[in-house]
Amino acid sequence: MSKRIFRNFLFFVFSFLLSMGPSEVWAIEPREEAKLVAAELSQHLSFKLGEKIFEGKVFSQAMSAWKIPLNHEFSSLMRELSQQKILTQYHSIGNLIMLTGEYEQSSVLLYLERFNGDAYQGFLSVANNELQDFSTESPAKLHRYLLDRETAIKKQWPPWMPDSATLLMDVKLNAEQTQYIYLDSRSLSELKEVVSVNLKNANWEPWLSAESGLSTWTNGHQQLQLYFSPQAEGTALYVLIQQNVKELHENSH
């Protein structure tokens, strides 16, 4: 995945998480081990965990995330980070800082947005690490696992999405909302035309197209939001699928 696609994805997902309020938090309870890992790390780093902002799946792996409210002790946090052994990898993009690490059977991500002075906010996520481990002596097992994964992905493949596209990311927000990011070698205009024709053939109807490039399609109680982004490798397509949405024409009156 190119750096530009990666940055766009981070902005897409992190902005969504940080913009959510307590009323939008889902009723699903976080996994007990995730709560324990988050509590231990927040205590060690001396910051307060806010409300839960995400409970879902990323790449089919369970993930829980908590908001870190605005704090004014960034220098103190940096000192604490130097003394812990969980978050061992560091990445930064402008004023955004991401620290990742492993703790027992969990993958941990600390995302921080730094402001002027010592102010910062962000979120802490804990994901269940379900990655398979294969030795060089079991190529048949690895081959079978990859085939099964490909079959599982194809079963969930939208019928309007070209087979030439590559799935880069899937984020299951809750039972009714899922986000995907695809990459296709076609140009933006070519991919947009192909997807548009396929959607109409699958009985989707265009409802709204904004100047920003975001388009909305409906099919009964399903709503689809698409955003096409030109990349050096072709075109990235950001997809949000929502189920059980009220008829949009009902909401417009």
Summarize the structure.
The protein is of the alpha+beta class and 253 residues long.
What does this structure look like?
- This protein has two domains: 3-128, no CATH class; 139-245, TATA-Binding Protein (2-Layer Sandwich), CATH 3.30.310.
- The chain has 253 residues and is α+β, with helices and mostly antiparallel strands.
- The protein has a twelve-stranded antiparallel beta sheet, sandwiched between helices.
- It is built from six helices and twelve strands.
- A hairpin with a 2-residue loop joins strand 1 (52-58) and strand 2.
- The longest helix has 17 residues, at 3-19.
Q: Specify the biggest β-sheet.
A: 12 strands, antiparallel
Relative strand content: 35-45%
Mean pLDDT: 78
Would you identify the regions where 5 or more consecutive residues have pLDDT less than 50?
A: 1-8, 18-30, 249-253
User: Number of helix segments?
Assistant: 6
Envelope shape = elongated
Spatial sequence of strands, sheet with the most strands: 3-4-5-6-2-1-7-8-12-11-10-9
Task: Please tell me how large the radius of gyration is.
Answer: 20 Å
Category from helices, strands and their pairing? alpha+beta
Task: Give me the strand/helix succession.
Answer: HHEEHEEEEHEEHEEEEH
E-strand count: 12
Quickly count the domains. Answer: 2
Spatial separation of the terminal alpha carbons: 43 Å
